[in-house]
Amino acid sequence: MRITVIGAGNSGISMAAHLSKEGNQVTLWNRSRATISKLIKTHSIYCEGTINGIIKIYAVTDSMDEALENPDIILITTPANSHKELAELIAKKIKKSTVIVLNPGRTFGALEFKNTFEKYNSEYKQIIAETQTIIYTCRKTAEDAVNIIALKDSVLISALNLESSECIISYLPDCIKKYFKSSDSMIQTSIGNVGMILHCAPLLLNAGWTESLSNTYKYYYDGITPTIGELIEKIDMERVEVSVKMGYRVESAKEWLIRTYHVIGQNIYDCIQNNKAYKNIEAPSSLKHRYIFEDIPCGLVPLEAIGQKIGVNMEYTTLIIDLASKLMDVDFRKSGRNLRDLNYSLLNV
């Protein structure tokens, strides 16, 4: 299968290596040439963990023309705050209809992508889908190396078109199909975005420790204490209530952890402490990180907006957006995904 992977971060090189190892023709694209300079020369990714070995990939490029030459499927693994720009760039370059999957979409990523793409390209129709999260728990250890700690189980995937959504898994490469589960609605992948629950509040509330020059900490094991766990469960309750009002109840973050990682626990804190895949994950060394600059504008902001529109009390979600905006001196509501930029009628809301 001819596959284009967009983005050479943690998830991108994990996906490129995995798909290449299983016999697919993978082209890896990244905007910054400096990030992939070694890969351009060697075409080799060094993997450890669940997937091991030195894996050769077909092509590595910073040219979108080359990346879109003739793909059977396009898998986007970049942070969600680049989706809108990528939708425009791909729309202007692509010369065929295919399948585009956002891994993950975060909150309403496929909706934003479709709206943007169709402004610039009405000739080549695309099946646009999003996943609830990336299937890999992974960390890039060098420009050309990655530690793939675990592969998640039953990651939800959906497409905007109902007919496409029902068969979206059939379009995926064979080696990753088993890690996905088709959802009944894109509400379940978008409002089902647990990253915004697990990432934003804990990093903000550990600001001092994060910026310390003399200490480091394990993000999940150390950073999510019982008290922080209780707070993020309150944010999570708002998220679940939004999904109920939209007609498709999503899992709580605790339920998601239990299903995805097969852990046990009475609450989020317990589940995280019992999750071996999280044991060695280091915290970011800066607040200028995707946990804030992706998950606030592309997660909590649209969650708050739709929640308020349908009459849900979003006070805890609002608290975290306000804290992030004040602490980072950024108007995340203005820069993020909001009602004026998204055509929510496609979701019948």
How much beta, percentage-wise?
15-25%
Unreliable segments (pLDDT under 50, ≥5 consecutive)? none
**Gap between N and C termini:** 37 Å
Mean pLDDT: 94
Question: What characteristic shape results from the CA principal axes?
Answer: globular
CATH architecture of the largest domain: 3-Layer(aba) Sandwich
- Main structural class: alpha/beta
How would you characterize the overall build of this protein?
With 349 residues, the chain is α/β, with parallel strands linked by helices. The chain has 17 helices and twelve strands. It has an eight-stranded mixed sheet with strand order 5-2-1-6-7-8-11-12, sandwiched between helices. β3 and β4 form a beta hairpin. α4 runs parallel beside α5 and α15 packs antiparallel against α16. The protein is globular and about 50 Å long. The two termini are 37 Å apart.
Ordered list of secondary-structure elements with their pairings:
Elements: E1 2-6, H1 10-21, E2 25-29, H2 37-42, E3 44-49, E4 53-56, E5 59-61, H3 64-67, E6 73-76, H4 83-93, E7 99-102, H5 109-120, E8 127-131, E9 136-142, E10 145-151, E11 155-159, H6 162-167, H7 174-177, E12 180-182, H8 186-190, H9 195-205, H10 207-211, H11 226-245, H12 253-261, H13 268-273, H14 290-293, H15 296-309, H16 315-328, H17 332-335
Parallel strand pairs: 1-2, 1-6, 2-5, 3-10, 6-7, 7-8, 11-12
Antiparallel strand pairs: 3-4, 8-11, 9-10
